[in-house]
Amino acid sequence: MVNGDLAAAAEKLGLWYVPDPGSRASCTIGGNLATNAGGACCARYGVTADHVARIKAVLPDGRIIHTGAATSKNVAGLNLTQLLVGSEGTLAVIVEATMRLRPKPVQSATVVSVFSSVVDAVAAVVAIRAVAEPSVVEMMDNATIVAVDAMTRMGIDDTAGALLLIRCDGPAAEIEAERCEQGCRGVGAREVYVTTDPAEGDALMEARRVALPALQRYGSTLLDDLAVPVMRLPEMIDAIAWIAERYHLLIGTFGHAADGNLHPTIVFDATDPDATARAYSAFDDMMNRCLALGGSITGEHGVGELKRRYLEPMVGAVELDVMRQIKHAFDPKGILNPGRAI
C-alpha cells in the first residue's frame, strides 16, 4: 500500500496516519517499515516504528512470525517488531502490518520565517524547541530556495539565507504558533508570516515538498540523509558549503531542522566522469564530517549499499559484529537482500 493512500483512507474516517515522507505519494508502507522512514511530522510524533503495532513476516526458511500486539503496552519477550522495522529487508520479509492511527488534529497553524543565514535559522529552532512543540520544522538553504522559487514561482525571497516552515497542531495550535513567531523574531528573522488557514498552510508547505524535484531540474542528484545534534547544525551546514566550493558543485540542503536531519543534495552531470567523481568525493567528505560532529550517517533513508562502508566507523567493530550475528541468526544462508545494510 502507498503511504499517501493509507493517509487518505484514514482521513476519510477523521483519522490521521502520521509518518509523511516527502515521497508519500509514491513510497509504500512496506518500504517505510524496511527503512523506518520518518517525514516532516517526526519532530513531534516520531517515525514509522512509533506507529506500528504488529507485523507478520516470513523468515528466510519459510516460517511465519507474528510480532507485537494490538495493545498500548506490550513487554512480552524481545521486541521483534522494532528489530524488523528498519532492518532493510535483511532479516525477514514483512508481508502484513497493523499500523496505528491518531485522531486528526482539529486545528493547525503554519509559520513561515525568513532568515539572513542558516545560523540564525538554527538559533530560531533552538529557541522554538524551548517554548513550543511544533509537529513540523522544515528548513531550506539559499540554493534550495532559489531552485524551488524558479520552479514554483511562489515569490519566495531568493536572497534569504534560510527559510523555516513550521506547523503547529492541536487545541493550542495558535498559541504555539505565536510562541514560534516570537522565537523567530527574537533571533532576528527578516520576515515572519503566520496563517491559521489549513489550505494556505498546505500551500506554503508545498515549497518544502518540491525541494528535491526543484533541484533535480538542474541535473542528476546524489541525495544524502544525515543527522547531527541540533546544536551542531551550523557546523554541518558550513561544512556542506565548504565542500560544495571545494568540488565546484551545487549542493542544496533542506531537511527536518527540529531533529537535526538534513538532506544535502548534490547536483551534477552524470554523463561527465569528472563531475561524477567530484560528486562522490563530496558525498564522502560530508559523511566524514557528519561522523566527526557526532552524527548519524542516515536519519531515515537507511544504509543500503551506498553507506555500508560508513557503518563501522559510526557504530564500531563490536556493535557491527553483534548486528551481523543477529543477521546470521535470522538468515544463516544470507539470501535476504545480500550486500545491503550490514
TrEMBL record:
The keyword Zinc does not apply. Transmembrane segments: none annotated. Keywords: FAD, Flavoprotein, Oxidoreductase. It is an enzyme of class 1 (oxidoreductase). It holds the Pfam family FAD_binding_4. Residues 1-104 form the FAD-binding PCMH-type domain. Its EC number is 1.-.-.-. Its cofactor is FAD. GO terms for molecular function: FAD binding; oxidoreductase activity. Belongs to the FAD-binding oxidoreductase/transferase type 4 family. PANTHER family: GLYCOLATE OXIDASE SUBUNIT GLCD (PTHR42934:SF2). This is Uncharacterized FAD-linked oxidoreductase Rv2280. It comes from Nocardia africana.
